[in-house]
Amino acid sequence: MTNNEQLNNSPGAGTVLEAERPQVMLRARGITKSFGHITVLRGVNLNVNLGERVILLGPNGAGKSTLMRILAMLARPTAGSIEIAGIPSDEARASIRSLIGVISHLTYLYEDLTARENLHFYGKVYGLAGTELENRVEELLVKVGLERRAGQRVRYFSRGMQQRLSLARAILHQPPILLLDEPDTGLDRQAAEMLGQVITEPDDQGQPRTVLMTTHNLERGLALSNRVVVLSAGRIVREVSAANLAADEVQSWYYEAIRR
Amino acid sequence: MATITKRMDFGSGTANGKRKLDWAKILLWTMLVSFPVTLIFILLAPSDYELKYSQRIFYFHMPSNILCLLSFTIYFIGGLGYWRTRKRSWDILMITGLELGVFFSLIGIVTGSIWARYAWGTFWTWDPRLTTVTIMLVVYLAGWMLRSSVEDPNRKAALTAVFGIIGFINVPLVYFSTRFFPAGLHPIVFGTNDKVVNLEGFMTLTLVISIITFSQFFVYLMIQRIRLENLRDQVAGVRMALYEDEDFV
Amino acid sequence: MARIAKPDRQIETGATRDQTVLKPYFRVAWQVFLKDIRTELRTKEIFSSMSVFSLLVVMVFVFALPGKLKEAGDVAPGLLWIAFTFAGVLGLNRSFINEKDRGSLEGLLLAPTERSAIFYGKALGNFTFIIVVELLLAPIFSLLFNFSVLRVELLPVLLLGTIGFAEIGTLFAAMAVNTRAREVLLPVLFFPIMLPVIIAASQSTAAILTNRPFEEISSALGLMFFFDLIFLVVPAMLFELVLEE
Fold first, then answer.
1. Which of B165, B223, C32, C219 is 20 to 30 A from A180 (CA-CA)?
2. What is the total count of domains within chain A?
């Protein structure tokens, strides 16, 4: 059985990476993105190593969301290349998507399906099936504290509950990489804690998750990350890697960095 | 910036300091000669036995229709090119083909219906070819609308390309489908085409000259349209460069 | 550094290809279809708006046309297909606007397979909605016009026509959803392109209802078949381009 078969067949792509994971899980080389004459990203180089949790900071319009969308294979860069877990993105766009879990301010949920149905749908889309899918869904419903309302339509959920369910959806297929684009928009306290837990805990293979996130909540973001990358006007202007940076310390050089 | 100016430059010459052959200018000068010549030929051409003087409109009608088909083919090719490469230059080719196609099909339809008034006694008839051309015009007008209702330039080009490919494949189908159309007062009157085949020598010559002149005009318009789009790109590029320092994005 | 997986383009043998590429592809298409059906069964949003609207269209025809029953046969096929087309556009519009407005379209785009799978899933769903409404509308139409269009021979015409609607309609709905005047734009794009199908369908319907021989409609059916075949393949090839940024 080749690696590739594993990638596509194995329910939950997490198992693919059991033996040896590449050190650099996410590699962006010279990413440029233009919308007509407006250039949003100008040659972004970014490596995220296995188990690293990187927080992406930058003013509005710096290109954070665009970069996240490109890394999530939702948008194509105008120039530059991406490697996800060592696989060049232009060769296997489709199967690479199974290695990534995405959370954004959109929940991606279907309002008229129940919580359980939503997870079942996305699970099947990602190739889970049978009792494995059942178990995984139930396990996650408990984890995000929605097991009692699993049979209810998402339409009647509060924003916080929807975000929790969205969190479950994102890690359903056990992706080794998580991309979080302002995941804390509208999160209640419970959901925010859950988010922190999911980001920091190891995945089912006991491997640390690789996380890239943008956030408005600087303190919470810094508590979760071990590297800070500042994006300004489409370029990376500052990178600091250290765990538990103090918010006011970061703030002081952050403003200096984006002024350039 | 350099890449923008280089792309599909038909030699306005000013962009990179070197003087190149300016095809648009050459065509403009030759048209100054060829237009009057064509007109003289059209006036001198013998009148048709049945259609009398009105037949001369045919020398406008047929070249426009040929060029209209050519334009939509160019649009289609541009669409395929964009689909494969996502390059702006194909997008420019698509716009050019789309706009020129609409322009020439309008000329074709108007001249056609004036002619129909004299040939068949009515401005409009639903014979298959006329119906097809009309539907084609409507299809591409819809494409134009589609283009103008998208903001993001990449998406605009993408949707234009998709519509151009679908629309072009559809045209022959429309042509066949109109055969099932209930025939109006004038069933398959376009037998007039058979008359064209029997054109006498001078008429044929006039037609050829007219087609050449129209093609000149067509190429001229195409060059200018592409140049216009390139200039727009340059202006926008310069504007962006000016704002670059100000965290404009 | 270890490569964890070969990209799927490099798979040589047919057997692995089935396993690795086609299976997720059909699975995603099928799941999208099932999801649409399930949602619709629950909300009846598309179905109710389509059927009410098409009923209204038919009623407008009944009142607008000073009806001598004898002449119904001349106009009925055309009117029937106009009603179908209008209803179809209404339903097609919803299919992507719902996904887009609720943000779930992006969730689908994250699915680990070719995006044309989404096209086929959606098109199958749209086909189902439209054909159900058509089958319901036909008896009501017959009743109101006092002119029966209920003939078994019409089924192939109905199928061929509706398949074409669903194919082109799904593609254009996906295109229109990313534009400014999206609800207005879909009919503008849809009607001209659908003309061959509408003409062929109403002509063959007329021929069947007036008991004309099969030879008269064979070419119209052939045209529809041809149309369906081409646009079964082409939109799927272009779908990635429609949805990418």
1. C32
2. 1
